[in-house]
Amino acid sequence: MSSVADTSSWAYLVRRPPTSEILDYLLAQWLEYEAGYSGVGQPFSDRSEPELTEGLGAYLSKKYDSGAQPFDGEFFAELSRVDLAPDGKRRIIGRSDIEWRLHGLPNFVVEFKVIGRGRPAKAYVTDGMTRFVDGRYGHRSAEGAMWAFFRPGSSELPADVEAIIDKHHEALRCQSENGSLRIAPSAIAPAAASFDSIHDRTPIAPRIRLAHIFVEIAKVKSSESETS
Question: Which domain of life is it from (predicted)?
């Protein structure tokens, strides 16, 4: 009879798709979702980060339920991360934006940040990357992803995000690979990501490699505004 460890190893080797496949699929589904719904109701460029990630999560679930997802596992949106307070009550310590889960494997977390119109690029680091570094996200995983949505007309661009990462590389515990702290092309998602970063999390969690994906939200008028 197989042990739990054997089952987990089998799942990893046989059923766990490459990270590049997960992120390439996620990016393709975002583009489909945006093309299908960005002109309906409130413009995507005006929607909040939870509205965007919850909508994408629902779209991914629809694909999964219809059997259209090409690999095993399932995506979940806005999952609460909890801890126990001293009085034994549940305490919410964060919410992961999108997670891919397959039984027996560490969860693969994708953290999203909207940039522009009052949403600063620094939050990508202070409220995004740091949650991986301190072990709140991907605690058992060796891989994860950061995803930036740039609103149309944003004064801050991908280069600004890169500069902030470089400035805070010590606090982020960035590890060099081939002489670079921002590794391009990405090793885990070369088609979808601009670069990778590697972060030491000793002793709380294993070292983690993050793929960084930058997407500009299309500027599309809503059907409501066109008919009003």
Answer: Bacteria
